[in-house]
Amino acid sequence: MKITKKEVEYVAHLARLEFSETEKDKFTSQLNDILVYMDILNRLDTSGVEPMSHATVLSNAFREDKVVESIGVEEALKNAPDEARDCFRVPKVIE
């Protein structure tokens, strides 16, 4: 076992979480599985692998900036349920 039930209880206490005994057993098992898998990954030879910033290859993530006409106030407010003085009116949420 990479992690004990006592360690799970300690971390839960630090996080101010309360778990039943069944949940503690389940979390201990799940965390142990994760840590065992991390050990398997750490055994892999990654000396020839370049570091990556993303797990998948990004292409065309950025577009060229172009100055274009905006749609205008009238067009933007065309479907607004309520508007006042060229602004959207929304219900008050703070009292």
Output the keywords.
mainly alpha; 95 residues; two-stranded antiparallel sheet; 3 helices; 4% strand
Reconstruct the topology from this structure.
Layout: H1 5-14, H2 21-42, H3 73-76, E1 83-84, E2 87-88
Antiparallel strand pairs: 1-2
Give a written overview of the molecule.
The chain is mainly alpha-helical. It has a domain at 5-42. It is built from 3 helices and 2 strands, in the order H-H-H-E-E. It has helices at 5-14, 21-42, 73-76, and strands at residues 83-84, 87-88. The chain has a two-stranded antiparallel ribbon with strand order 1-2. The longest helix is centred in the N-terminal third of the chain and has 22 residues, at 21-42. The protein is flat and about 65 Å long. The model has no long low-confidence stretch (mean pLDDT 90).
Percent helix among the residues? 25-40%
What count of helical segments does DSSP give? 3
In the predicted model, the low-confidence regions spanning at least 5 consecutive residues are none
Order of strands, main sheet, comes to: 1-2
Structural class: mainly alpha
Give a concise summary:
The protein has 95 residues and is mainly α.
